[in-house]
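Repro case for the chain-ordering regression, as requested:
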Amino acid sequence: MKNIFALCIAALLLAACNMDFYSSDSMTSAQLADNPSSAVYTTDGIYTLFKDRIAYKGQSGGESGNYYCRHYFQLAELRGDNVTVSGQSEDPFTLAYMYNDDPTKKNIYYTWWIAYKMINAANSNIDAIVPGASELSDHLLGENYFFRAFMHLHLVTLFATPYTSGRDKPGVVLRNNLDISTTTRATVGEVYDQIVKDLITAKEYLAHGELERIGNANEKGYVTLNAATALLSRVYLYMEENDKCIEQCNELLANAPSSVTSGYDYEDYPKHTYDHPETIWCIRLDTSDEWAGEHAEASIASMYVKDGQGWGEHYWNDNLIDDFRRCPEDKRFKAYFRMRISQNPSGDHVGNLNWEEMEAAAGGKVTVLFPIKINDDSISCSDGFDYSCTPNADGSVPFKYMSKSYTAVPEVVNGVKQYFVNDASFPGVKLNGKSRVYVRPAFTLKDGTRTNMGGTYAIYFNTKFSYQDGLAMLTSPVFLRWGEVVLNRAEAYAKKGEKAKALEDVNTIRKRAGLSGDQLLTESNIAGLGFKSVTDAVLAERRFELCFEGHRFFDVFRNQLPMDRQYVGCHKWETIQPNDIRLALLIPLDEINASGIPQNPR
Amino acid sequence: MTLSPTRILTVLASLALSITMSAQNVSVSGQVLDASTGEPIIGAGVLVSTGGGTVTDYDGNYVVSAPKGAVLVFSSLGYTEHKENVDGRTKINVSLQPDNQLLEEVVVLGYTSQKKAELSSSVVTMSGDQLRDVSTSDVGNMLQGKVAGVVVMNGSGQPGSSADIRIRGTGSITAGAGPLYVVDGVAGGSFNPNDIETITVLKDASATALYGAAAAGGVIVVTTKSGSGEKTNVEFKASAGIKRALTGRFEPMNSSELYEYTRGMYSKTFFKMRYPETLLEQDFDWVDNCFKTGVVQNYFASVSGKAGKVSYYASVDHYNEKGTLINTNFMKNAARINLSAPITDRFTMHARINYAKTYDQSQSSWRTLDYAYYAMPWDIPYVQNEDGTYNYNEPIYMTGSTRPDNGGTWWTQNPSNILHSEKYNYSKGHGEDITGDLQLVWNVTDWLTLTSINRYDSSNSYYEYYADPRTYDGMGTNGDLENSDSEWNGWGTTNLAKYHQTFGSHDVNAILGWEYGEGYSRSMGATGINFPIGQRSLSNSIMNSISGADAQSRSWALLAQAQYSYLGKYVATASIRYDESYKFGPLNRGGYFPGVSAAWIISKEDFLQGSSAISFLKLRAGYGKTGNDNIPAFTYQDTFSLSGQYNKVKTAILERMANPSLGWEEAYMASLGIDAEIAKNWNVTVDLYHTINDKILLEAPMSPSTGFFAVMSNVGKVRNMGVEFAIDGSIINNKNFGWTVGANLGFNKNSVLELPEHQDIVMNRGDVNQVIREGHDVYTWYMPEWAGVDEKTGQPQWYHLEYQLDENGDPVRDKNNNPVVAEKTIVNNLNQATQTAVGTASPIFSGGLNTGLRFGNFTLTANGNFVVGNMIYNKIREEMDADGAYTGLNQMSINNGLGWKRWQKEGDIATHPALVAARSDGANGTSSRYLEDGSFFRLRNVTLSYTLPDSVLKNIKMEGARIYVSGDNLLTLSRFSGMDPEVRLDGDTYHHAGLYTHNYPVPLSVVLGIDVKF
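-- result from build under test --
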């Protein structure tokens, strides 16, 4: 009996020795390395990091919208001058919009952390993949060099001052190998040099072969040689290495798809950026992603349109609308400008109206709206909304505000038809002694309610990130496309003084957008159209072509230009100078607390 | 053979019996048993009321001669006396209840039991009845305020939620710091509060070291009831009552307050335009409509007794609670059966089965609680009829800021009406748990017992979420349905050899044990979208996502304990345990956990013998080491998550760095205690302790630019030291009137002793920081310090600090390890302010008070608990006391009795800055402005009960009957501005201790109940 008991104990003790357990829903690096395509899994993991919500300190559950693409597009775009944000929300994107970023908020720490997580993954892959082993592995290596460059570029443009403000200014943490034992801030110049170096290496590896796993020849969801070349053209442009920029653009445009010149259906484009000839590289989203399904209310589109799950809190800014309205034929405005109404005046349910449909519904009626100050902190909102206005024969618009009559008088300024009220008693905000107002088609719905201009803001939606697979909240966000490449070259030419070549590139873009005749630019007509220089015209075109895609902030400040933000919105009414200390976002406090690197000044 | 005093007594009594005879009497025989163990009592006295008597033999049997109408009185040392009318019977078996009042009381410590008088460590025992005054399903809530040095806080009023328990402070930081439950002798297991016979809290490491793993947070030993006595006992308990959410000082603005508030931040013209006076007619009380009257009911029945040789206890229990927040509830049906059967005279079997099924429902969306706090009173969430009235059965569907019914504005910033969502959507689940124990006891010899406790535990749970396609939550995907289920199976065996022998004045006890256990868990879940209204089946929806995983675990341990007692006066105990944990790397799995303690029962010394002032006095001392492995599995490995996909292909993301050196967190506790009984009436206990937690398991923050934010590490040292007092006794105790009082108090001082390279570690949770800094409490708030409101301008102010730097450019530290401030300036923008250590979330002291009044058959009891000196960060105020930053969220009234005042004009001394619409200076950002005194006193329970007198009971053939009315949380004294100062105590990956957000407040409840016994 006792012997049996002892035997049992011995047997169980032996069994107890095996205490090695592994998670069934994750793999250790050793387990993954046993897998012949582990580098494919880990490289694809970087693509996933752009679009998936990864738990930062366990906050993923409660933090909707916490994914890289959304934060990046918001941080890049909302600090420009294309968008109006209607009011402060708990979502920290409003802080970015107001140039009042908070280093403890998710948009700051998540963007920083994920960018470095991608860099860390790229470094690990670069360390593991043996060069020359196969076409596939070389392509993967190229992709990883690309990602290291791309993420460093995002970081240095968001968290440091522009390259043109000085190479020796503090940049970001440079991670070009697996050593993470020390953390210091490199200079802006050092970061850019590494980016250039990595992109040149990336191009070498990516040139070695096509990536077989892409499958569909039209697939744009993976990094290719074109993507690396296009990004390098952008980096050289930012560094004002204009010749090198042109060289990269020429290399690319020699094999450009026909849509670069012939154009394409702009409205159709966001529905399938992932296989569209205009795209060079996008992040592929599909209906199985949560931003298409249960968390669609946190997609990039959700802030631009309301259709269904959207919040619709970012609107077309009034000035951008008026600038576009100079050329009503511009397909880009027609394609993406929408006003959402639930009914039209005859009571039919309708969806998103474009400008022409708005005018038709209004039947000649307009309303006048304008910014007013609501307190001394320069916060403004739009006001006005007299729905019964009919313009006079001379184009002026009589309207009533707070029971008093005023007249909005048109005047062409910088080629743009603008309206002003010249009346000392008028409560609108004065610029150069006059109050600028905006005139919009307006109508009353059958049920007596007004169009959605009846709130505190005129609400105009942007559909550039919508309607993939028929879903209002879904698109595959584009990071590199041909339109930008053409305009990169245009800007480089302009800065070299090759004005005709610059304008030729600009006109390529304008032509495909449906513009012709005197709407195309020549050296002689640009002054009349309100452009101070060819460079000015190129930058304006970049704004039209790339608006909402996260370029404007960088375009203005890397050219050391001021940005006029005197328009309706919950931000400060001001012009931001290129030396403003707020340009470099605050580095996450978690980083400062853990590594002690110096914070950006405030 | 040794001669024990009881045996001598037996022989003497047998001799006495032979000379006591009476001819008219009948002969009565029977057996006397211990009611708790079912074992025979040897040498129990059996006295006949008319004279004469006997004692029981080795098997507890007796034979006595008595007149037919006589009364037999059964007694034995350590048991309550018991009387039986002979009534002509010839066979009378009785079970004697152990007498808790005597010093011979035995305390169950899990593996062992020990006489209370001889305990050498700090142990508090309570009977089940002492716990069950409050109306709750959670045993943690029952312990609140009842044990010195044990802090219990419940951060949620969600029915079925459980409280956080901290025994002697918090040593761990991110690893679990809660106590280990030991049910019926084995760690883990499940129980129903109504089945608790006793509950014992082991506070000293000298006692808990025997549990090694996971005992760093103390041990709570639960013993469930067992069959007792020959007679069948039936008990029935019923209670029902109502409850109401406690909202404390928190009151959101009503319509007119908000109107005046809003007026204060805009120009006259703008305000007139935007905020018509008709708004004043719209005044919806969201708190009142989201929190309704709840209902709590509990019905319990038990039967216990003995059938043949088998003692049994069986119970059924139904608990049903409807929460105060709409759509929240909890229901539990439970049953237990405990059997004890002597197989042979040396071999006993105990079998126990506990089963419970729970159903719970919580609010369908996180927005429900948010809305309850901050929705605007101008939003009336029902469809307005043509005639201007509202249809209160029809919540309005909102997705934008324009109301579809009347074209008016929806003022709340997030345009979704949760009352509409709550009408259609739900989030609920149910779970089942069955635990079966088989305990075999083999009394091999008089001095050796082998015990094997084998437990199988199986549980499963199911969760379902439904968002109707008609609602805001379900519309985007045209319906959203989630089903998930999980199961857990585990078994364990605990095998003990117990030795006990007495050599004259020497008493020796020892145990040697071995434990082994395995567990297996599995889960799977799926979500579906796109289905017709009312459809609730995954198979009829479009698949959206699936998940599934399983995991295994294993543990084993060896343990040994020896105890020596001399003359019942000097007691010494030593124990050691070896544990292995699979949560650590192969080289660090083993842990040794020793413990020693000693007690000196001074009152047994000659110089105190017979003292009426000090009838009992004991000095205790102990030292022990326990371990903590309460962290998620696999954290020592580097792992890739494969949950993501790209372009429909699985992808791998590195989620964690490997830490092969990860090992046990260790806690070393030294303690000293005194137990005394003064004036035969007052029990006093004083304890001192000093604990060092070393190699603390912490998710140590990493610089995010490494791609990681934290790595699980063994980092640093934390010390807790404290003193505990407990006193209870009776002031008056006579036949008609009694008055007892009790109090307990625990002071704890926590301090971080050592960190890697002496560097501060900043912990960010929910955008609020705490700092772990040497010399400071582990829960030290870290944020800009508020400098009040500028009297001149009404602007908010904070401090900007410039530190004195050493030659390396690092701040010079003072003796408290704070950086030395070289210059302190006032700034008006939060971004320019400097984070600094500003108070702690740990209380300085906490405790409880209780009193009982007996007046005839009426009893009134009351108990309360208090926590003093902790700071709560009230994060709600970032949104709701935001000085104009949010114009679409309702604000809290500042007329809350705390003397708050808004700056209006130059010279105002104010707590609140001037109003600025949509402000951006950070006035409402995280700073010590929202850090509040978390001290409170709460009257946990008041119960008035009436017990039916014996005379009445006899007529209706009942053993006992009691009716009572009981009130929970009737009074709270606090200066906290939120709803409820009871906030979570644990800091983990997701929360800070002491962080207050949209909490579900605990309720006030009033319950009527009845207990009857047959």
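Ordering looks correct now. Chain A touches chain B through 105 residues (CB under 8 Å).
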